[in-house]
Amino acid sequence: MDSIFFSRVQDLNKLRLPKDASEMMRLYKVPYNDMKAWSSVTTPPGIIGCTDLWDGKTLRGAAGAHFKVRVRPNVSWSEIGELVNREESRLMLASPAASDDGHRPFMRDVPTLQYWEPDYTERHNFIVIGGETEGISDEAFELAVQTEGCQVTIPLANNVESLNSVAAASIIMFEIKKQMMMVPMTDDD
């Protein structure tokens, strides 16, 4: 666990954290009204910027895909880096905001393509979908630079601010499936 956001100290005490918890992770005391503004959930999940893969809404949204693909929870960026081989695979980042705001100079080192431009059939693809509020993490951008990855964007109509993460992932994965279906079958298949 990296961070805990809390509004009442007594709630934090109920977690029975070790005495040196503040040295092992960041603790943020946030006013209750701010916490309420961040989420309409009446019982917050407790983890901001993360998804419980086995939550009912997540399972319904994935329409059973959890049971058809290998799920590897709690994978570190260094482990992902070991899996991404430049010749055989590519790391792609998809974020609601693919512009350089000056805070991430290494963003300029990651080429940006429209979501239909990469040839998804030539290599294995690792796709990182950024959250709607936070976008892509610095660690993901650094790994994309190290592995010669790219950013993919989805053009939006006028006055549309962003897509939610599920919609963006669906569009990109549909394009991958479309390209895979267009590859001619060989005798080896």
TrEMBL record:
It comes from the Eukaryota. GO terms for molecular function: RNA binding; RNA methyltransferase activity. Residues 50-174 form the tRNA/rRNA methyltransferase SpoU type domain. InterPro entries: Alpha/beta_knot_MTases, rRNA_Methyltransferase, SpoU_MeTrfase, tRNA_m1G_MTases_N. Pfam families: SpoU_methylase. Keywords: Methyltransferase, Transferase. One of its GO terms (biological process) is methylation. PANTHER family: RRNA METHYLTRANSFERASE 3, RRNA METHYLTRANSFERASE 3, MITOCHONDRIAL. This is tRNA/rRNA methyltransferase SpoU type domain-containing protein. The lineage of its organism: Eukaryota, Metazoa, Ecdysozoa, Arthropoda, Hexapoda.
